[in-house]
Amino acid sequence: MCLNDFRYSARALRKNPAFAILAILTIALGIGANTSIFTAVKGVLLNAFSFPEADRLVVVTGVSKSLSDVGVSYPDYLDWRAEQNVFVDLAGRFPAGGIITGIGEPERVFGRYVTASFFSTLRIQPQIGRFFGEDEDKGGAAHVLVISDALWRRCFNADPTVIGRAINFNGASWTVVGVLPANFDFYGRSNGNNDLFLPMIGTFGKESFVNDRGSHPCQVIARLRPGLSEHQAEVAMNTIAAQLAAQYPATNTGMTVEVHSLLRDFVGEESKALLVTSAGAILVLLIACANVANLTLARASTREREIAVRLAVGGSRWQIVRLLLSESLLIASIGGTLGVLLAFSAVAAFKAIGAGVIARIDEIGVDLPVLIFSAGTIFLATVLFGLLPAWKAAHVNIEPALRSGARGSGGGLARVRKTLIVSELTLALMLLIGASLLVKSFWKLMDINPGFDPAHVQTFRLRLPDFKYDNPDIAIRAVKELRRRIGELPGVIRVGITSGIPLGRIDEESYWLEGQPEPANELQWPAVLSFYIDENLCRTLGIPLLAGRVLSERDTDDTPPVVLVDDKFVRENFGGDVRAALGRRLRFKGNNEPWLEIVGVVGHVTHYGLEEHARGEVYRP
Fold it and tell me: 485 and 372, same structural domain?
């Protein structure tokens, strides 16, 4: 192709603006959709972590057949670390949150409690200072922590003398010993920022945490030894799990181990949604190319005489192909440029909608690899919609075309156009079927009763500082006073308090129903979702009462302990007979847990998504 070809193509497109605009906009939509989706896929799934050899980082977790949640007890973590030979090292972690004071305005921050091996497992180095060691990750050790680059810049103006400074976190003084590198990107869906990293045992050095095998709060990451796969590591770790089950049958019976990549742990189900959306975007591009190819063929049929004249006066068929391909490339280039501009807006909207929901969303952006992908897509689109029309037009029969006049003979082109129309309709039908199934699934979810009335309901989360509200009575009084003040605001009808809002996910607890055999091991303990609520919550959310009564202000520590259960719990334990549940007692797993009398049955509320198959629910005052 030469400059003259593009000049001629530009003049030809100016003479037929309707065709040019329609073709350019069609290609712009196809390339814009693909660029937007590729940007998301690259940021979430393809971008490498900042850690060295990140592909060898895995998550190692315990899975119980009796509980749907997963995790690892701290004693099991210690045994895993001592007995395994498939990992370079392991590290434990779980989320942390609280309030920092003393460095400007009080601020709520998130972070993680981690073992001292966390940083060495990731193989990262501090930006300044150091990381805490094994001697600082034990009960009674000095309070030290590591802060993020973001917190360092936000609260300390990137002051290099921050090492040794004190931070008041949840009422206790902690000394800064290190600052994480700026590109540290260890974060997940639930805690989008990691401002603080604190020693796990230095913080939770209580005997109940260190020695309790029945509680599984930890998440474990590990670095695979060279040459080993995730499957090989999982087999080896399950051998250790079987040994622990034989040694500690009361807590470890039925516990197995699962090993999977760190990326899978971060991204979760979002990867499937992104890949399905990518397939849809590819179909859109193919439909756009088929559409523009059809338009190009229709236009070529009116130019058969022009092409025949060029061939008759000595032009080569390759020159005709080159001329028509330059026109297609011009259309694809202009449409691709518009598509990239559309992608900028689409990515900005995607990041706004997905903030706090999709992991690694901050890494999504239109960068050089995305622009290279867009350029490749433009070239592909040119080939898809331009090559066949150009080839067919260049092989026109000269004599019939010259005799037929300006309208062209169009026999061969007509057959190709019909084929393209069939292909376009087939692709559109595939896309329509997929979209219809998606809409059908959406409407089915919309028809599901969540168990409460969400209309005009607003929620917020509150964490009281431990140093000020470590006494439960003081904390309860503070929350009730807050409830009273909110209830006095204009437009507020009722205020309820709960430890877990609907659709907000919550941990499970094991329980024992009176009259049933006492559980002998972990497998025999059934599980429920357990909540603390006040007397207003059921009325505030419109949760229906099916039998008995709701909680009241008279249900205090000075009265016999009571609970509400939901109808799912009743179906699991009493065959759906709500009256049979009233008066029965249950208690939760743990030392000195009291027996709780069931005084009411309420409707089931969804907490793990509208399509959930969750446990029954128990509400405590």
Answer: no
